[in-house]
Design a protein that fits this description.
single chain; about 260 residues; alpha/beta; 4-stranded mixed sheet; 7 helices
């Protein structure tokens, strides 16, 4: 039997269902996802207002509820830590974190072939092609905003590296690239190439500066030893406060 035939004969996974269960004085909302590919294991994933319970196809609702009761303590400790889904840009009234301030976003239908964003009088105006349905319109708006932030990063971050180069640089000025990393604000390769995520542009200027200095310190020390942090602290005496704010900020930013 070919892979295509196996796929055609495989039972489709039912659509997820949302349930609620009372445990003590708390109500736990859970989304039940049965999968033909899952044979034994059960997986819990906390989200903003619920927990997703991935189970084998044969799992009954009563069995799922029992799992929720048994893991209620863990679930209640973790559900809600995940940030709420980001507001829809195309719904209006949305604001984009940018360089430590909130930038209002206005999405307009326009006779354009490709979505694009531009800042006009303190507002980020996003043009999306005319005639898109709600889902495609939202996707188009987000693509335009990401590309705009990427362009801002491509302008700002090399300039920041150049500003700090006389103090922290080694040899010829490093090449700076802009990427899409989600788990790292930036990184520095052994060859001295620095790669930053476009997402840093949603941070306050002093946190952007800290990220740049942090990566440039790796030009001297490719580790996080005391010697490395001494380099960073010499450049930025308030580095501990900036690191703390950066950790706190990470949990609130989405796009």
């Amino acid at each position: 039997m070919t892979n295509n035939e196996k796929s055609a004969n495989r039972r489709p996974s039912p659509a997820p269902r949302l349930y609620a269960i009372r445990v003590g004085g708390d109500t736990i909302r859970f989304e039940l996802r049965r999968s033909a590919r899952r044979t034994r294991t059960i997986h819990l994933r906390p989200e903003f207002d619920r927990v997703v319970l991935a189970v084998p196809m044969r799992t009954t609702l009563d069995q799922a509820r029992e799992v929720i009761r048994q893991r209620a303590g863990w679930i209640l400790a973790h559900v809600g830590r995940v940030p709420a889904p980001p507001p829809r840009l195309s719904d209006g009234g949305c604001e984009l974190p940018f360089m430590g301030r909130s930038l209002p976003v206005a999405v307009d239908d326009a006779l354009v072939g490709w979505p694009a964003a531009r800042q006009v009088d303190g507002v980020l105006r996003v043009d999306v092609p005319w005639g898109l349905d709600d889902s495609r319109r939202e996707d188009a708006a987000r693509r335009a905003v990401v590309e705009w932030l990427r362009a801002q990063a491509a302008e700002r971050l090399p300039a920041e590296v150049q500003r700090w180069w006389p103090r922290l640089g080694r040899g010829d000025i490093a090449r700076v690239t802009i990427g899409n990393q989600r788990r790292q604000w930036g990184n520095c390769s052994h060859k001295g190439v620095m790669r930053f995520s476009w997402r840093v542009m949603r941070l306050a200027p002093d946190l952007i500066e800290y990220i740049v200095v942090h990566e440039m310190a790796h030009l001297t020390r490719m580790d996080h030893s005391k010697a490395f942090w001494a380099i960073v602290e010499e450049a930025l005496p308030d580095v501990k406060e900036r690191r703390k704010r950066l950790r706190e900020t990470r949990d609130t930013l989405q796009l």
